[in-house]
Amino acid sequence: MAAVMPSRLAALTRLRCSIFQTSYNPTGVRTGAKYLRARLRGPSMLKYYPPEINLAQIARKYPELEIVDEVEEQRLQDVEDRKKRGKGAPKKAKTKADSRRNQRKR
Amino acid sequence: MPNIRVLRDIKARHGVQANEIARRAYLYVARNQALPPQVRHQAQLQLNTFGRYTRPTTVKNRCTETGRGRGIMSEFGLCRFQFRLKALKGELNGVHKASW
Fold first, then answer.
1. pLDDT tens-place string over residues B12-28
2. Of A26, A31, B62, B79, which has the fewest Cβ atoms less than 10 A away?
3. Quick one: signal sequence residues (chain B) (predicted)?
4. Residues of chain A neighbouring B82 (CB-CB closer than 8 A)
């Protein structure tokens, strides 16, 4: 069997590329085309978690419905109770000396 | 109410979705060997300016029930314990406990 000339093989590849509408790239240069070809992954990423109803948002949007968020009410009540027992969050330091004093107490 | 890690993951997912096309364009320029090196370098520098929550690798599939990050069955999006609970309750179609 006679060997085929390399130039003939290259011509064949070029012709094949023109027929199947692919780019002729005999040296395998990286063109970055794969980043344009790949599908966008963002839309499917957004669908992973099931949609959640945000009660606080609805209550803010429609104040006339008077929705009571029981979990939030309970949390606020707990904070109040803790404050009464003197277990509330400390006051925000107004000056540098205040914040240093708080550090030393620990 | 999802925990903070799930909220952060949701934030990352939104960020990826919003910046995906711009990132792809910069990636194309930066990885294209046919373009001059200066242009490619500039594109790479632009890629580095994107925030943490715009990279698709930041996104992690967490348990949709509990938010656990490890031991997730990706087909169901559940961690191994939630998977077991739901499977035993018969809430997962086609899954039943092996016995022979």
1. 999 999 999 999 999 99
2. A26
3. none
4. none
Instruction: Return the CATH number of B1-60, one of 1.10.287.1480, 1.10.150.130, 1.10.3720.10, 1.10.443.10.
Output: 1.10.287.1480
Q: Six-digit token pair at B80?
A: 């191994």
Ranges of chain B with pLDDT below 50: none
Q: Within a domain: residue A92?
A: no
- Who among A40, A49, A52 is closest to B20 (CB)? A40
How many independent structural domains does chain A possess? Answer: 1
Note the ipTM here: 0.81
* pLDDT tens profile A36-65: 999 999 999 999 998 888 888 888 888 887
Is residue B77 exposed (0-12), middle (13-18) or buried (19+ Cβ within 10 Å)?
A: middle
